[in-house]
Structure formats: structure tokens, C-alpha cells
Amino acid sequence: MVSASNAFMSLYIPIFLILPVIFSISTAVHTIPLNGTCLDTCGTIPVKFPFGTGFGCGHPDFARYVRCNSGTLEFSTGTGIYTISSIDYPSNTLIVRDPLMSTCSSMQDSGSFSLDRASPFTLTGDNIFVLLGCSTTSPVFDPKEDLCDTGSGSRVCRGLYSCKGVSGIGLPQNAPISTCCVYESPIQLAGYTLDLPKLQCSSYTSVYSFGGNEGDPMKWNFGISLQYNGSYYSNICKDCESSGGLCGFAGFDQSFACICRNGKNTTTSCFAQGLAWSGTWGSKVQTKFSLAGGMP
Predict the structure, then answer these.
(1) Is residue 251 situated within a structural domain?
(2) Structural domain that includes position 184
(3) Residue 178 falls within a domain, yes or no?
(4) pLDDT (tens digit, 9 = 90+) per residue, 175-210?
(5) Which of 21, 38, 152, 205 shows the greatest Cβ crowding within 10 Å of its Cβ?
(6) Is 276 among the domain residues?
(7) Mean pLDDT (whole number) for 52-81
(8) Contact assessment for residue 247 and residue 259, using Cβ atoms and an 8 Å cutoff
């Protein structure tokens, strides 16, 4: 006759052996951020899909470019890390600020700026890029290339050189604008790369709006306006958000994950939570453990 203790051990041992397998399947297939990692704001900026506040949040194609760092939403490229000052979701645009970029109130030697062609971001036509303190031998002044706007661009240069901040790049206020160049079109940035050492210029700035007063550079809006690809938003993400979750991704295959506010995560919505999940952006596979029937 089998004693009660022996019967318990015969049940306990298979369960003890099976549970680590289930745990390893769950963690290996669908590694997800811990609860609280994904937030819907960063500082004062609302963060919505396809963006996220950290790795595993938002869409994976955007995660390498945008993240939240100590309450500041940052945009990264090959030339540096820039602050995102605003995002307009209806128009799929955002404004980034280079901390070394010149403005009317403060001009300084700048670094270069680049935008990866393979990224889901492009420059908008609102940007007016201005090169400041350029050498007279700079290639931007090559008459054969016609790189500088000598029409309305001259007014922009005069406006910037009227700023007191121009002393920061070693020029007197109201200096001759012969060392200033305005790019008329972002296409002229040749691969979306602004290489200041190569162009022999001290600094650069970008004006995306004159703030309703083109004659007063102190009121101009300085920053780089970017357009992002808004086609990533899908029905599965809509379902996740409708259930109160945040859209993210997980695992080596970066499959879709609905990050729920209670700490549980699924591949569909926060209304359907299982013990262990794996899946892709368009499919769902659920693995359960049953004491009665073992593993399916």
C-alpha cells in the first residue's frame, strides 16, 4: 500500500521537474521589461507609439533613436544625442535641439549633425539651416555649386549677425554676412550630413519657424524639425491601448508585447493575460501548465 507521503512525493517530483522547463520557456521566448519600465510620459512630453521611454517600449525600429533619460526625451544619431522639445502626433513631426547649436542669444562652436538614411526619420521642409563663421575658402561658397541662398537667405544671415550672441563665435555684432550661408533645401545637406570641419564653418543653426516675426531673431524658433514614419500603428497596438496597455516588444525576435500596467504582459491586450506567452506582431501562441493534464 502506498503511503500518503509517498503519493505526495510521486506528484511533487514530476511537478518539480516540469516547472523549471516552463519557466525557461516563458523567459527565453518572451523576455519583457519589468512593470514600470514603459511610461506614457517623459518629463512633460506625452510618449505615444511608435515611441517608447526605454528599450522594449514602443516599436523596435524607433527604440534605438528615442529614449527617456532622467525625465528628458532624447533623440540619438551618429553625431550625438539631442533633446526632443516637442512631438506633434497628428502631423507625425518632432522638434529636436542640439545643445551646441547656435541661437540668437547664444552662439558657440558646434559639432556636426547627421541623420541616418535608414532611420524612420526625415528632415521636413520647414528647416532653414544656417552655417555661421565660415571661411571664405569654404566649399559652400563655390559659385559652381550654388549651395547658398542669396535671396531671402541674406535676410536670415543679417538677422543672426545682428544678435549679440554672435560674439561667441568671434565675430562683432552686425559683421559682414560674407561668412554666413543659408541652405535653401534640406536636400543640399548631401546625405543628411552636416560636416562643419569639412565645410570650414564654426557653427550652425536651424530655424523651423520665425514665430510670426521674421524681423526679430530673438523670437525665431530654433531647432530641427523631423518627420517620422507613422505607418507602424496597427490594429493589434490599438487593441492593446484600448485595454489600458502600452505597445512594446520583447524577445530575440522583437515580437509585439502589450505592456500592462499591473505587471502582466501579453501579445494581444491586457484583457487576455496568460501564464506564458510568445508571438509575433500578427499572431498569438499561448502555453499553459495544467496539473490535471500536464503540458499540452
Answers:
(1) no
(2) 100-222
(3) yes
(4) 999 999 997 654 444 347 888 999 999 999 999 999
(5) 38
(6) no
(7) 92
(8) yes
